[in-house]
Structure formats: structure tokens, C-alpha cells
Write a structure and sequence with these properties.
The chain has 245 residues and is of the alpha/beta class. The chain is 25% helix and 25% strand. Strands 3-4-2-1-5-6-7-13-8 form a nine-stranded mixed β-sheet, sandwiched between helices.
């Protein structure tokens, strides 16, 4: 199996190093990741400047762009083979509910999915890299499942509680939960007295009912959510058609 690995925390992040180490025994891997932290970059592509690719001492490639840039460049200009799987992560912090719209981790996997390649995004629920070895072991086990019964290609969003491996409960298929609206921006001043703003924290969970990703990880389960790209609101088509008639 040939796997392309990326992330949004940057090529030096402990999460991507642990993921690469976990998958090296079972696959031929290539790592192409951002040169720095690009969290929250979503599916953005860099179109206003050229991008460069460099190779680090550990063999990882790094790009001065977004996670989507990394996967896009790898698939369309770098690699001389088509990967069997795209894997993104392991992210420092959860990507659940509405977070998936902003996540660079999920975006890297999504870019692979858009090219028709099965893709998986991995995140730890809490920040700090606690129990990263356990998360990497879970990631390897999930990759090894192959998901032969899933429609091809698939796009999976995996969130792993920061627990020792023996305390983790079996993976559950989940749906995305919902969050309350984000908290207000933090308004302050720079050293020159000019107003600046920091984006505030994400909203608390609004729908963390049974079956959601929020509920699963709160119970100690690994959450696996199948994602789709079609944003069409099918249930509103009839009403819109009627209003346009």
C-alpha cells in the first residue's frame, strides 16, 4: 500500500511524526505537509503566489502553503505514483461537529477525496499530545481495516480520545454533532495602539446526543464519521422551485 500523509500542524508536529512512524511498517509512505501551523485554513488553495517544496532531513517534504496545497501539489506535480490512501493528522485537538468546516486536517483528506482517493483525517480530542502513541496505534489499526464495504472513494473523519490504549473503547460510526455559535472575538491593541482582533473560542457543544461524535468520545470511544462534499440542501429544492415558478 502507498500512502500520502499530510496535516495542518506542520511537518515538525509530533502528530505527523507519530503517524508516519506507525504507518511505515505497513506501507510505502510519503509525507508532504505545511512548513508551519496552518490550523483553521479549511480547503483554501494558495493562488496569489508561487509555492515551493523542500525536503527535511527526516525525508518529509514541506510546502509554504496550506494543507490542501500540499496534497494538491503532491498529486498533480510531485509524485510519480497514485497513492492508495491519503491520511491526514494526527491533529492536536478535536475536529468534530461544525469544526470540520474550518479544519485544515480534514481539508487535506478532502483534497485527496476530490481526486478520487480514499482519505482519512485523524485528530486527538484534546490538545497537548497526551497518549499520542495510543492514537498512532489506533490510526494504524483503522488504516489496516481497508473498509472494503465502503463506497469508493470514502472520506472519514476520526477523533481519538487522549486515553491509554487499553482504556480506549471500540470505534463507533457517528454523525457530526452541532455547536453553539462561536464566542466573540477578543479585541485588543498592538504595541502601536491600533485595534486588533483574535478569533474567539469555538462554541460549546449544542447537540452531543447519542450517535454524535461528541457523545462517542465523551464515553471513551473512537469516533469515525463518514463525510460527503455535496452541500446541496435537497430538502429545500422543492420550496425553491416553487418560489421560482
Amino acid at each position: 500500500m502507498k500512502i500520502l500523509i499530510s496535516n495542518d500542524d506542520g511537518y515538525l508536529a509530533p502528530g505527523i511524526i507519530a503517524l508516519a512512524n506507525a504507518l511505515t511498517p505497513i506501507a510505502e509512505i510519503v509525507v508532504v505537509a505545511p512548513d508551519s501551523n496552518r490550523s483553521g485554513s479549511s480547503n483554501s488553495l494558495t493562488l496569489d503566489r508561487p509555492l515551493s517544496v523542500h525536503r527535511a532531513e527526516n525525508g518529509f517534504y514541506f510546502v509554504n502553503g496550506t494543507p490542501s496545497d500540499c496534497v494538491h501539489i503532491a498529486l498533480t506535480g510531485m509524485l510519480n505514483f497514485r497513492p492508495d490512501l491519503i491520511v491526514s493528522g494526527i491533529n492536536q485537538g478535536q475536529n468534530m461537529g461544525d469544526d470540520t468546516l474550518y479544519s485544515g486536517t480534514v481539508a487535506a483528506a478532502t483534497e485527496g477525496f476530490l481526486f478520487g482517493i480514499p482519505s482519512i483525517a485523524f485528530s486527538q480530542v484534546s490538545k497537548g499530545w497526551d497518549e499520542l502513541d495510543a492514537a498512532a496505534k489506533v490510526a494504524r489499526e483503522i488504516v489496516e481495516r481497508r473498509f472494503a464495504n465502503m463506497p469508493q472513494p470514502y472520506l472519514l473523519n476520526v477523533n481519538i480520545p487522549n486515553l491509554p490504549y487499553h482504556q480506549l473503547k471500540p470505534a463507533l460510526a457517528t454523525r457530526l454533532g452541532k455547536r453553539h455559535v462561536s464566542e466573540s472575538v477578543i479585541k485588543t491593541q498592538d504595541p502601536h495602539g491600533r485595534e486588533i482582533y483574535w478569533i474567539g473560542p469555538a462554541g460549546a457543544a449544542k447537540d452531543a446526543s447519542e450517535g454524535t461524535d461528541f457523545h462517542a468520545v465523551a464515553q471513551g470511544h473512537v469516533s469515525i464519521t463518514p463525510l460527503q462534499i455535496d452541500l446541496t440542501h435537497a430538502m429545500q429544492m422543492a420550496a425553491l422551485t416553487k418560489d421560482l415558478s
